[in-house]
Amino acid sequence: MRYGIQTLSPKFFGAAPELAVAGFNVGANLGTTTLISGTIGAATEASKRGIPAIAFSGTSGSQVPWTTTPIPTYVSTYAALSTNLTQTLIASGKPFLPSNIWLNVNYPASSSSSCASPGSFKFVLSRINTADAGTSADVATCGKTRLPTESTVVRTSGCYVSVSVGRADTKGDASASQQAVVLGKLGKMLVCLP
Question: Nearest 5°: CA angle at 11, between 6 and 13?
C-alpha cells in the first residue's frame, strides 16, 4: 500500500489516491485478527497517511489465479458487494471518512447454495472487539448503544456482512462519534440483526 501511495499513484495519476481499498482477503479478519492481518495493515497504512481506506475480507474461498474459469461464486459475489459499499461511500461525498478512520468489512460464507448472490446479503454496523463494562457506548442505532461484534454479525444466519469502524493508530474500535459519521454515510444500506 505504501509503495502504491508514495510511488505508483503519483507516477500514474499525478497525486495520492482519494480512497484506498484492500482485499477482498480470503479468510475473515474478525476481532483480534485485525492486529496481524496484512489486509488490515494495508488499510491502516493508507489511513495513517490521510487516505480513507476500506479492508474487505470474505469467509469463503481459496486463493485462485485471476484467470480461473468458471469464476467461483464467492469471487463474483464478494466483488459485487465490495463495489456496492465503495460506491455508496463515494456517493456520500468528501470527506469519505474521518481522519485516522478505516472500515473493516467481513463477508460470511458464500457458495452456490447459500448466500449465492449479492442481493442475499445485508450490511450491519458492528464493532471489532467485544465491549466490557468499562467500554464507552457505541453510536445509537437499532434501539441500542452497543453494536454487535463483527464475529456475531458474520456468524448470524442470514447472509449478514459486518461493517466495523476502526482507528488506524490502534486497529481497534472507533468512538461513537466516528461511528456516527459512518452510520450517516452508509445508513441507507445498513440493517439491524434480528
Answer: 100
Which of these, 187, 27, 179, lies nearest to 107 by C-alpha position? 27
pLDDT, tens digit, for every residue of 124-182? 999 999 999 999 999 999 999 999 999 999 999 999 999 999 999 999 999 999 999 99
Pair 100, 167: CB distance under 8 Å: yes
What size, in residues, is the chain?
194
The 3-state DSSP class for residue 3 equals: helix
Beta strands in 17-73 (DSSP E): 20-26, 53-58
Segment (H or E) for 154: helix 150-155
Grid-cell match 485471476, residue found: 66
3-state helix, strand, coil in the chain (%, to 5): 35, 20, 45
